[in-house]
Task: inverse folding
């Protein structure tokens, strides 16, 4: 009998096997030992008051089962999903609030360790928000007004979020028709929690509309705000080379890992590890230098802007410690396993928490303060350096690593299709219309130890690009592709279908575009909006030949993301069992009814082959409804000529010779 792999990542599997031989427990072992509750996993358990928990079981539970209060199974399943969406929106949006406050602090001169890096992006955002820029206004004055506009979005009680206007008009009209246009971010989260309190909202349809509304407050609010502020402060990403997997750690250098989701401290650590004084201090302890690596979405933030290598996604965090090479692992918020501290006792690794919101027993706590950012970063780096001589346990040293290209922001994708003066989404639209590109898939979400971790990501990535589907990826989905060696242009030559391969060769890009951290799913929304504005096949996001997939999701943030894409008009497919499977009515609402109202839907499907077929079916039906050329591999219609980078630069030189390109 063939062995069942716990991870599709060969290096991860090697470390897992080493850990098992040394009697070390990881999330993979716990996932096998702790089976999901068969009632709760399907959404058939209500535990929001002390009359319960109430279990909804039996052959006719949908029609006959009642809680102590009289709540029905559809009510309970919908209410559970709404609470998950609210928690996910709260996580991303609290991150965004901190970024808005940091931007305000920079603009007000309260912190000296950060600056406005991308003034062009600041002005672009100011224009969207209606903030005056240019005409002699200082950059800091513009930044202050932008920050205050963003902060208004959190507490607004009436009206709508500022960024709602970025969505296509038809998409906005659908939201208004069904009453799901988000007002203030905190307003929607608070109302969602109120509605799900015992004895309030019992209409499954109404509860699910609230799930869409609070999720839109994340997608077109918190996440989009965070992405834009991060670009303004640290730079809008453009393609950068890096490496991925556990081979990034070096035996003769101090290894520091930044892990979590908030980028500001990690940005400062990038600066500090390159300070000559710090490098000299590391050498005084016997190290040859300092090596910085990332984990999860903090990894994606510093990867996208600085080419800092990544050790991988969610399920790789314990395994990084088990290499025996990590001298300090510093964490902030979200997706941090509390098991890290217990595991670290078997090695020398120092686990450092940096947020008062996210403490772990057994960790060193150093409270991050943006007003003393460099001072705190130096303290963390010194702890790692001082710990370097303490390496005792020989871990599972892995040398395997893969090259990757990351850094595909909205702005760069627009630029790469026409250069600085002719930037547009027209070539992408044309390629879709004539069938060179069959459609677009957002491949995102977590990696999960309850399946062969990263395996479904890898399977879908290969099969989709074979079928001429362009992939945009974020978060741990990007990490899964990166640690498989999928994020390089050569991937198109080896695996992509003939149409996608030609497009990738002409532009010089991989067939899978790494867009950043999980909050950067908002880039997909703005890209889709720009494609709709460009015209040619759809004037709204709904109905485009595009699908969102989270094949190994595990976080409440993923539910919020899935809901805001569905509300925006994108069919979304989650892998694994459905958290509302117990209710046929709730399932019908999320698939059939949402599709009728918003052109988007939310499906759950555990079979990877069925996910693939469902995805291609959605794309082909969208092409047919839009009257686009029928997709036939290798057969294309007439389209504009795709120019390579050299040709675009030549055009730019001719257009603006005085700029000296």
Result:
């Amino acid at each position: 009998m063939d062995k069942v792999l716990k991870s599709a990542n060969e290096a991860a599997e090697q470390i897992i096997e080493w850990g098992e031989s040394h009697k070390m427990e990881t999330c993979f072992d716990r996932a096998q030992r702790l089976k999901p509750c068969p009632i709760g996993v399907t959404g058939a358990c209500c535990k929001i008051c002390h009359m319960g928990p109430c279990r909804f079981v039996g052959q006719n539970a949908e029609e006959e089962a009642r809680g102590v209060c009289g709540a029905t199974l559809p009510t309970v399943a919908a209410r559970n999903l709404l609470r998950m969406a609210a928690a996910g929106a709260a996580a991303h949006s609290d991150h965004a609030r901190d970024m808005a406050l940091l931007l305000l602090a920079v603009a007000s001169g309260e912190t000296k360790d950060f600056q406005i890096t991308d003034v062009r992006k600041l002005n672009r955002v100011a224009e969207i928000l209606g903030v005056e820029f240019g005409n002699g206004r200082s950059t800091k004055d513009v930044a202050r007004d932008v920050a205050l506009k963003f902060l208004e979005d959190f507490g607004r009680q009436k009206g709508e979020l500022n960024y709602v206007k970025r969505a296509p008009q038809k998409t906005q009209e659908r939201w208004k028709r069904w009453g799901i246009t988000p007002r203030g971010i905190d307003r929607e989260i608070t109302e969602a929690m109120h509605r799900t309190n015992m004895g309030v909202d019992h209409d499954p349809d109404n509860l699910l509309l609230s799930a869409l509304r609070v999720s839109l407050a994340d997608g077109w609010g918190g996440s989009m705000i965070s992405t834009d502020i991060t670009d303004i402060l640290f730079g809008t990403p453009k393609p950068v080379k890096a490496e991925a997997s556990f081979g990034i750690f070096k035996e003769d250098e101090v290894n520091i890992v930044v892990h979590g989701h908030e980028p500001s401290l990690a940005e400062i650590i990038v600066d500090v590890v390159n300070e000559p004084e710090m490098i000299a201090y590391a050498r005084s302890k016997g190290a040859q230098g300092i090596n910085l690596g990332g984990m999860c979405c903090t990894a994606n933030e510093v990867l996208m802007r600085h080419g800092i290598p990544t050790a991988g996604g969610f399920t790789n965090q314990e395994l990084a410690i088990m290499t025996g090479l990590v001298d300090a692992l510093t964490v902030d918020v979200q997706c941090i396993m509390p098991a890290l501290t217990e595991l670290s006792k078997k090695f020398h690794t120092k686990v450092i928490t940096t947020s008062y919101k996210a403490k772990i027993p057994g960790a060193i706590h150093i409270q991050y303060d943006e007003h003393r950012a460099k001072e705190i970063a130096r303290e963390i780096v010194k702890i790692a350096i001082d710990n370097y001589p303490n390496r005792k346990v020989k871990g599972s040293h892995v040398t395997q690593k893969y090259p990757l290209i990351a850094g595909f922001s909205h702005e760069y994708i627009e630029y790469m299709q026409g250069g600085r003066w002719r930037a547009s989404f027209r070539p992408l639209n044309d390629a879709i219309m004539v069938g060179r590109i069959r459609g677009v898939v957002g491949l995102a979400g977590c990696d999960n130890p309850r399946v062969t971790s990263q395996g479904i990501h890898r399977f879908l990535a290969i099969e989709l690009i074979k079928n001429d589907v362009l992939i945009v990826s974020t978060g741990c989905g990007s990490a899964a592709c990166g640690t498989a060696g999928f994020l390089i242009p050569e991937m198109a030559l080896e695996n992509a279908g003939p149409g996608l391969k030609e497009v990738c060769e002409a532009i010089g890009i991989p067939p899978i575009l790494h867009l950043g951290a999980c909050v950067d799913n908002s880039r997909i929304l703005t890209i889709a909006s720009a494609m709709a504005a460009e015209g040619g096949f759809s004037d709204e996001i709904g109905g485009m030949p595009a699908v969102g997939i989270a094949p190994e999701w595990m976080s409440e943030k993923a539910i919020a993301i899935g809901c805001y894409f569905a509300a925006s008009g994108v069919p979304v497919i989650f892998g694994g069992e459905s958290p509302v499977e117990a209710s046929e009515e709730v399932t019908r609402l999320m698939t059939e009814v949402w599709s009728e109202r918003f052109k988007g839907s939310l499906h759950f499907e555990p079979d990877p082959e069925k996910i693939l077929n469902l995805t291609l079916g959605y794309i082909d039906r969208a092409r047919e409804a839009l009257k686009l050329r029928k997709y036939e591999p290798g057969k294309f219609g007439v389209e504009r000529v795709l120019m390579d980078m050299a040709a675009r630069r030549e055009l730019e030189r001719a257009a603006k010779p005085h700029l000296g390109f």
